[in-house]
Amino acid sequence: MNDAPLDTLAAQCLTVRDLIDSVGDPLMRAAIDLLLIEVGRALAESCGPDRQAEA
What we know:
By secondary structure, the protein is mainly alpha-helical. It has one domain (about 5-45). It contains 3 helices and no strands. Helix 1 packs antiparallel against helix 2 (about 25-45). The chain starts with a helix and ends with a helix. About 0% of the residues are buried.
């Protein structure tokens, strides 16, 4: 699987997370953290066992 879209999504989410931190809204922070967890899970699932061992 091509991880480029998920990598791009993760990078964008991290940028949004920084913006949310500057706003200071805890509900938005929880929402973006949940999204980051799901993106990380999807990235992990897209990796084969060989790549997971390298990480």
